[in-house]
Amino acid sequence: MLKKYSQSILALPSDIHDVDDVLVPGLQIEQNDRLGTWYAPFEYVNAKARLILLGVTPGPTQMTNALRFAREALGQNLSEDALKRDVKRRASFSGPMRKNLVRMLDGVGLHTALRISTTEAIFVHDPDLLHSTSCIRYPTFYRRGPGAPWRPYNATPAIDRDAYLVHYLDTELAPELASIPDALIIPLGASAQRAVEYLARQDDLALTRCILGMPHPSGANNGRIVNEFPRVRAEIADKVKAWFA
C-alpha cells in the first residue's frame, strides 16, 4: 500500500495544515454513496505489544499528522518498515485526545501494571509496550449522500451492521488482533466496543482479552468522560490488575 501511494504522498503540499490538504483523489482507496476511505500509513503491527488500544478509525488530526510525517520520511530514504513504525508511533492518538487518554489509563492503574511512571511513556519512551490501531485501519469518512461534504465517521452507519465497514473488521482487524494473542485489548468508545463484540460473535476474538466500557478520549467526548468514566473506573482498574497479574 505504501508503494502504491508513495507518489501521491510526495505530491502533497510541503506545508500540510489540515485534513483538506490530504483528502485528495490520489490517496482515496475506495468509496460508496455514504462512506469513503483514504490511505495513510497505519499498517505497522507491533507483535511484541502487551497492550492494544483500539480506536474506531484514524481521525482528521491523526490522518494529517501521519501523512505529514510520511512525506518527510519518504524524503529521508528510510526503509519501508522503519517509516511505517515511526509514522504510526508519532501519529496514533495524537493531538488533544492523548491527554484525555493518558489521564484515563493512569486512572485505571495501567501505568502501575506495566511498571512505568505514567502511560504517557508508552507513546514516547516505551512504545514497544503498545500496539495502537483502529477498527477501520485507514481514515474513513462519512457523507449524507453523493456530492455532500465528507465528515469524520462518527458511528453512523453502525460499524457492525454496514457491509462496507464490516469488510474491514473481517479482513483486517480480526487477523491483526489475532497476530498479537497475548496483548490486552482496550476498545475506546462505543463503536470500537461494538466492533470487538462483533468479532466475538464470529468466534474471531475472545472477549476475555478485552476491557469494555472505556470512553473514547476525543475532546468532543468530554461530557461522557466526566460523567461516565468515574462510574466504570474501579471495575476497569480491577480487570487491568487481574490481567497483568
Report on this model:
- With 245 residues, this protein is an alpha/beta fold.
- It is built from 9 helices and 7 strands.
- Strand 1 and strand 2 form a beta hairpin.
- The longest helix has 23 residues.
CATH-level-2 architecture: 3-Layer(aba) Sandwich
Number of domains: 1
- As a whole number of angstroms, the C-alpha radius of gyration is 17 Å
Percent in strands: 5-15%
- Biggest sheet: strands, sense, closure? 4 strands, antiparallel
Highest-level CATH class: Alpha Beta
Helix content: 40-55%
Q: What does the oligomeric state look like here? A: single chain
User: For the largest beta sheet, what order do the strands appear in spatially?
Assistant: 1-2-5-6
CATH topology: Uracil-DNA Glycosylase, subunit E
Low-confidence stretches: none
- What is the H/E order? HEEEHHHHHEEEHEHH
Mean pLDDT across all residues, rounded?
A: 92
Shape summary: globular
For the record, give the distance between the C-alpha atoms at the N and C termini, rounded to a whole number: 39 Å
| Strand tally | 7
The number of distinct helices, counting runs of at least 4 residues, comes to 9
- Based on helices, strands and strand pairing, what is the structural class? alpha/beta
List the helices and strands and how they pair.
Layout (H helix, E strand, L loop, with lengths): L1 H9 L17 E4 L3 E4 L12 E5 L4 H15 L5 H12 L5 H11 L2 H5 L6 H4 L5 E5 L5 E3 L8 E2 L10 H16 L5 E4 L2 H12 L20 H23 L1
Helix pairs in contact: 2-3
Give keywords:
245 residues; alpha/beta; Uracil-DNA Glycosylase, subunit E; 3-stranded parallel sheet; 9 helices; 7 strands
